[in-house]
Amino acid sequence: MKKYILFAVMALITVFAAACSSSTSKEESTNLTKENDKPKEITISHELGETTVAVNPEKVVVFDFGSLDTMAELGVEPAGLPKEGIPDYLSKFEAEKYVNTGGIKEPDFEKINELAPDLIIISGRQMDLYEQFAEIAPTVYLATDASNYIKSFKKNAETIGQIFAKEAEVKEKLTEIDDKIAALHEKASSMKENGLIILANEGKISAYGSASRFGIIHDVFGVKPADKNIEVSTHGQSVSFEYLVETNPDYLFVVDRGAVATGGEPSVKQVVENDLVKNTKAVKNDHVIYLDPNVWYLSGGGLQSVLAQAEEVEKGITK
Q: What pTM, to 2 d.p., does this model score?
């Protein structure tokens, strides 16, 4: 009888110990699951500081059309953006479901605050307003560096890939762009012909050279500059039509600022190819290339726009 009681007691102790062990394991498992469920965060280093952001933020406000371009290519949608001046190929973001957060240079901070974003992405046009954005939400500054365009573009694309857990997709797209640029550079750099880049606006023209806003044509794509002494400036070096005649480029690359302002078709052809310029080599040989202002003036530095830029120049020098 004593042996039977002892056996029963031992059995109860074993069952109790097993139950405790099971409970502890379940508790540890639950705690581990809770730990894994916490949103991951990464710290982004950018020109204006360091910003800690959640991976895959739900509400994103984008003030840089180049970043919007990259997000669209990766299948990521913003919650809000400035709707005025959206490039044609990104016009789907004019839909009502996307909140209009003001102008590129005049953000509607009240509207942004109401939206309560998890992340704000800005670039050069909003640089001076960084602190005001940062008071509302984590803010990342992503702008391209004209003097090192491709490096800064790739860094921005990779940063967006990290934020939205799209690193593999970004890597694949960048490889495609690298291949396109390599082929273009081989072709352009082997040509004897040179090229000149101008921005046209309201009857006036500005020239751009290496390390400038549109200098990728020379520095990355390999087109020889017709003038190596153009001053580096965001707004370009103001020049005359007589300058075009004197420089006499083999290829003339034209960005029509007026087409962006009016939202219409390029309007600059008659202005550029006037009686004074019509005898230049570029005009006579039909080598005046009117670049799409959407991807050159509005949304440069995106996964789609950089590829489009390379394709435009390739097509132009193949004439």
A: 0.85
Range in 98-112, 128-142, 247-261 the model is least confident about: 247-261
> Who's near 294: CB < 8 A, 6+ residues apart?
87, 88, 89, 260, 305
Measured distance CA(226)–CA(211) in Å, rounded: 14
**143 contacts 121 by C-beta, under 8 angstroms:** no
Q: What is the DSSP string of 244-265?
A: HHHH--SEEEEEEHHHHHH-SS
> How far from each other are the two terminal CA atoms of the chain, in whole angstroms?
106
Report the alpha-carbon distance of residue 299 to residue 67 in Å, rounded: 8
Q: What is the pLDDT of residues 157-186, one digit of tens each?
A: 999 999 999 999 999 999 999 999 999 999
Buried/exposed 33-49: b ≥16 CB within 10 Å, e otherwise? eeeeeeeeeeebebebe
What is the per-residue pLDDT for 26?
Answer: 45
- Residue among 103, 108, 159 nearest 136 (CA): 108
